[in-house]
Amino acid sequence: MLETNHAHAPSCHGSRDPRCQEGEPLGVAKIIAKIAGEEQPQLIILGKQAIDDDNNATGQMLAALLGWPQGTFASKLDPSGGEVSVTREVDGGLETDKLKLPAVITTDLRLNEPRYASLPNIMKAKSKPLATKTPDELGVDIKRRLETLKVTEPPKRQAGDKVGSVDELVGKLKALGVVA
Amino acid sequence: MKTLVYVEHEGGQIKDATLAAVTAASKLGEVHALVAGSNVGPVADAATKIAGVGKVHVADAAHLDHGLAENVAPLAAKLMETHDAFVAPTCACGQRDRPSNERWR
Questions:
Q1: Is residue A6 within 8 angstroms of chain B, CB to CB?
Q2: pLDDT tens digits for A78-136?
Q3: Which of B66, B102, B104 to mutate to test the interface with A (most CBs of A within 10 A)?
């Protein structure tokens, strides 16, 4: 499991919290690529996009850095032998790709039901070794390349008017110039 | 600034999101388009007619047919040697090609 500082930040919208200034997709991808080089996994599974910045890029960048095939927005995985079939959610429906392992997968909401950890398992997890390393120790340059200029809330919806009759509605629409 | 726009197309038709991408890219400066796939002649012709597109790069090969990032990204990365920015529509396809571009390494 890779833990980034981002995961601890309550919300990064408009925040100046230093934790929100870290974890740019390219930097995160480089860190995972480095660890993948050391641990040689056959499959790396990531979420499809971070909730805070919606970049939807880390998995793709990771695949390119490693030179591995990528199955993005996966809603179904079917591994067999040295390959994995990935059903992907695309604009017009579903696309199924067959990837040679090792591969990078990013997940869509429909991939599975989240598995809720039971108390005994949480306790067991606590005793698992946690290898904490800094980017410097990994020899990875995570210098930021993006600068957030502005974060704004979407415009508030204006309250509507209630009308008592169809005639009143038509009158109002005419007054607004929506209908002739 | 010279920007490369990835043309999203299906069944010989350019998808509307591509037009928005070209309009956005034209605010950065000169716009070149990339049409990749097999038998994409008609798509390339249509791309030359998009307002704001100065030049169309066409890559016609069977392995580019499904627009897989693994095949398209190296092509785009090569073209990025002579472009300053890459813009792709937010479709299922651009979402996997764009970040796979290799120039940011």
A1: no
A2: 999 899 999 988 777 888 999 999 999 999 888 888 888 899 999 998 999 988 988 89
A3: B104
Contacts of A26 in chain B (CB under 8 A): 104
Q: What CA–CA distance (Å, rounded) separates B92 from B55?
A: 25
Backbone angles phi, psi at A132, to 5 degrees: -100, 125
pTM of this prediction? 0.77
Is residue A91 within 8 Å of residue A30, measured between CB atoms? no
The two tokens of residue B41 are: 């002649």
Q: How many CB atoms lie within 10 A of CB A174?
A: 11
* Polymer length of chain A: 180
Is B105–A65 a contact, with Cβ atoms under 8 angstroms apart? yes
In the predicted model, what is the mean pLDDT of residues B9-23?
A: 91
Question: Which distant-in-sequence residues (6+ apart) come within 8 Å of A97 by Cβ?
Answer: A69, A71, A85, A86, A88, B68
